[in-house]
Specification:
Aspartate Aminotransferase, domain 2, Aspartate Aminotransferase, domain 1, 4-stranded antiparallel sheet, 2 domains, alpha/beta, binds pyridoxal-5'-phosphate, 13 strands
């Protein structure tokens, strides 16, 4: 569905979506209050609802996924600690080194296979100060990203999620999930959220990606964790006043934009197999489980982007010979046919 007029098919990210008329109406009529004073009923409703969906005690509404992850990392670590995460993870690649600047933490990078970490590699990456004559930092937090963005939108199998959490716990590490696209993972694997995150201490969930809200993320965890997160949100400047208008968009998205993600996933699969069938383009089809298609091209990515742009199609280059397509709320079947037609012009 697309409710606004544009001559572009924008596949750069699922963050490009615009609030639908119904979402705008929900925002317009939302009951609001000063959320820094704890008075906003719509924010409280959203926080309760997301916490309940995750089977956790509490949640906190924050402006962005980056802030949500930053708060979680800051709560779980002290300066001099080390965070164990995938070498392709968003918190490592795309969050401006916040783990270093805001937490004073280093990162131990874990190799990925099919975009995802293996429990034994997580185990191998955890270092402890104790027993190292103080040579090592203290590995205290394991972070898992589900779906894995740079992993092509791949989903962790539940057994792997549970095993990674067990490795973390056996090593006295907390375990955080960057669930920016957790609803895509839940829909694609048919796993309820509370089961998926059962063994996780904290979860960051974006409302402004596949769910189609304009702004906002929700950080979820125990009551004690969220109380600590509330203080860091204040210090990071993320306390918002009449934020109910934004929370209302999130609540509307939870009601109307979750089940429909199967459509995004099937359009992405269609695009992936069609692009992979064209000479000079390759897609690792095994990673295409949700709304993303990463492809490599024999010709430079900039040339692919420029040629598609002249046909009104926008994709994102992520390397000299690789680009990303993300399917979202506004991408229609006609758009998919148009994109496939444009790719065939390269053949
Ligand atoms: C996996 C992942 N985590 C976190 C974020 C950060 O979200 P935001 O752009 O809201 O800061 C993104 C954004 O693309 C993401 O893909």
């Amino acid at each position: 569905m697309r409710h606004y007029s544009t001559d572009r098919i924008d596949l750069r990210s699922d963050t490009v979506t615009q609030p639908t008329p119904a979402m705008r109406e929900a925002m317009h009529t939302a009951a609001v209050g000063d959320d820094v004073l704890g008075d906003d009923p719509t924010v409280s409703q959203l926080e309760r609802r997301v916490a309940e969906m995750c089977g956790k005690e509490a949640a906190l509404f924050v402006p962005s996924g980056t802030m949500s992850n930053a708060i979680a990392l800051r709560c779980h670590t002290s300066p001099g600690d080390e965070i164990i995460t995938a070498k392709n993870s968003h918190i490592y690649i795309y969050e401006g080194g916040g783990y270093a600047a805001l937490c004073g933490a280093s990162v131990a990078l874990v190799d990925v296979h099919g975009g995802l970490m293996r429990p034994e590699d997580v185990q191998g990456a955890i270092r402890k100060q104790a027993g190292s004559l103080s040579h090592y930092p203290d590995g205290t937090l394991v972070c898992v990203e589900n779906t894995s963005n740079r992993g092509g939108g791949a989903c962790y199998p539940q057994t792997t999620l549970d095993e990674i959490a067990a490795v973390a716990k056996a090593n006295n590490c907390a375990v955080h999930m960057d669930g920016a696209r957790i609803f895509n993972a839940s829909v694609a694997t048919n796993t309820p959220l509370d089961r998926m995150v059962r063994e996780y201490d904290s979860i960051s969930i974006c409302l402004s990606k596949g769910l189609g809200a304009p702004i906002g993320s929700v950080l979820v965890g125990s009551r004690t964790f969220i109380a600590q997160a509330h203080r860091w949100r204040k210090m990071f400047g993320g306390g918002m006043r009449q934020a109910g208008m934004l929370a209302a968009a999130g609540l509307h998205a939870l009601d109307h934009h979750v089940e429909r993600m199967v459509e995004d996933h099937s359009r992405a699969t269609q695009l992936a197999s069609s692009i992979n069938a064209i000479n000079g383009f390759t897609v690792d089809l095994s990673t295409v489980e949700t709304n993303m298609v990463y492809f490599t091209s024999e010709i430079p990515a900039t040339k692919v982007m420029d040629a598609l742009a002249t046909s009104g199609i926008d994709v994102l280059d992520i390397g000299p010979h690789s680009c990303r397509i993300v399917v979202h709320l506004h991408v229609t079947d006609e758009d998919v046919s148009e994109v496939i037609r444009a790719f065939k012009n390269f053949a």
